[in-house]
């Protein structure tokens, strides 16, 4: 746990992130901005890179994984048009930062992480921050949530070669999925919408994510 006096040092950096990297780049959803103002990103990054917690770029979180850059977290969250009663599935818990942002905004978050160590650390940080509406699962998120469940929104925070079919099945009517799609290097961030059991898609921008490894992701 980071001590309160240590956290004070980051308040200015967090405000700057909100003004320059989020509002300054077009993020307008006030609920998303508030959530990111509330959540201390420094709590999610390892001590050796903590001084860079508010630079607008991904940072290493161990196990060759990264915490996504703040602008991309804000953009993906905004595009999901969340409401307070949404149930959201997240694939790729990682540090738990995106999970925490979602947790502040919706009724319930279900999050899947392949690596037990990362899932455990995220669970601990969220509990310390008092975010208690999250269910964690360790396993292959390319196969969806292990139990029968439908979600209003799905967010994939690692690159997939194409959208895993099980995720489409687990999405409610009028639901949205946001995911980076493409091969290692650069991918396209795509927003999918399910309407009358048909899926339409909109391309948002180019992004760089680590690969989703698993049955419907890339080979391990
Ligand atoms: N949202 C996270 C991003 C983490 S990077 C954050 O901001 O911290 C992507 C994460 O996806 C990594 O932690 C990686 O271990 C995880 N991952 C990769 N393949 C996966 C799979 N098949 N199922 C669940 N998680 C997976």
Describe this structure in words.
It is a single chain. This protein has a single domain, classed as Vaccinia Virus protein VP39 (Rossmann fold). The chain has 7 helices and 9 strands. It has helices at residues 4-8, 11-22, 30-38, 70-79, 97-105, 116-128, 165-169; strands at 59-62, 65-67, 87-91, 108-113, 134-138, 151-156, 171-181, 187-195, 198-207. Helix 3 (30-38) crosses helix 5 (97-105). The longest helix is centred in the middle third of the chain and has 13 residues, at 116-128. The mean pLDDT is 95. S-adenosyl-L-homocysteine binds at residues 61, 65-68, 91-92, 94-95, 97-98, 112-115, 118, 140-142, 157-158, 210, 212-214, 217.
Please write out the topology.
Elements: H1 4-8, H2 11-22, H3 30-38, E1 59-62, E2 65-67, H4 70-79, E3 87-91, H5 97-105, E4 108-113, H6 116-128, E5 134-138, E6 151-156, H7 165-169, E7 171-181, E8 187-195, E9 198-207
Parallel strand pairs: 3-4, 3-6, 4-5, 6-7
Antiparallel strand pairs: 1-2, 7-8, 8-9
Helix pairs in contact: 3-5
CATH class division: Alpha Beta
Q: Which of globular, elongated, flat, extended, rod-shaped describes the shape?
A: globular
Count of DSSP-assigned helices: 7
- CATH homologous superfamily caption: Vaccinia Virus protein VP39
Distance between the termini: 33 Å
Rounded Rg: 16 Å
Helix-strand pattern = HHHEEHEHEHEEHEEE
Low-confidence stretches are none
Residue-averaged pLDDT: 95
Strand count, sense and barrel status of the largest sheet are: 7 strands, mixed
CATH topology: Rossmann fold
Broad structural category: alpha/beta
- What is the annotated CATH architecture? 3-Layer(aba) Sandwich
Percent of residues in β-strands: 25-35%
Helix fraction, binned, reads 25-40%
**Bound ligand species:** S-adenosyl-L-homocysteine
Count of all domains: 1
**Strands side by side in the biggest sheet:** 5-4-3-6-7-8-9
The total of beta strands comes to: 9
């Amino acid at each position: 746990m980071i001590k309160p006096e240590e956290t004070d040092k980051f308040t200015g950096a967090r405000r700057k992130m909100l003004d320059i990297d989020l509002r300054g780049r077009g993020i307008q959803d006030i609920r998303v901005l508030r959530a990111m103002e509330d959540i201390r990103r420094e709590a999610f990054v390892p001590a050796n890179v903590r001084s860079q917690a508010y630079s607008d770029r991904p940072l290493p979180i161990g196990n060759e994984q990264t915490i996504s850059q703040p602008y991309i977290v804000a953009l993906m969250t905004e595009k999901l048009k969340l409401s307070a009663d949404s149930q959201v599935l997240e694939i790729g818990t990682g540090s738990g930062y995106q999970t925490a942002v979602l947790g502040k905004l919706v009724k319930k978050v279900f999050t899947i992480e392949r690596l037990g160590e990362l899932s455990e650390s995220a669970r601990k940080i969220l509990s310390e921050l008092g975010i208690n509406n999250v269910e964690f699962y360790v396993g292959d998120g390319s196969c969806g949530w292990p139990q029968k469940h439908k979600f209003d929104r799905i967010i994939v925070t690692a690159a997939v070669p194409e959208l895993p079919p099980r995720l489409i099945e687990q999405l409610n009517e009028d639901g949205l999925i946001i995911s980076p799609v493409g091969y290692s290097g650069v991918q396209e961030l795509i927003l999918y919408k399910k309407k009358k059991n048909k899926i339409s898609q909109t391309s948002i921008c180019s992004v760089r994510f680590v690969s989703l490894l698993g049955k419907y992701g890339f080979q391990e």
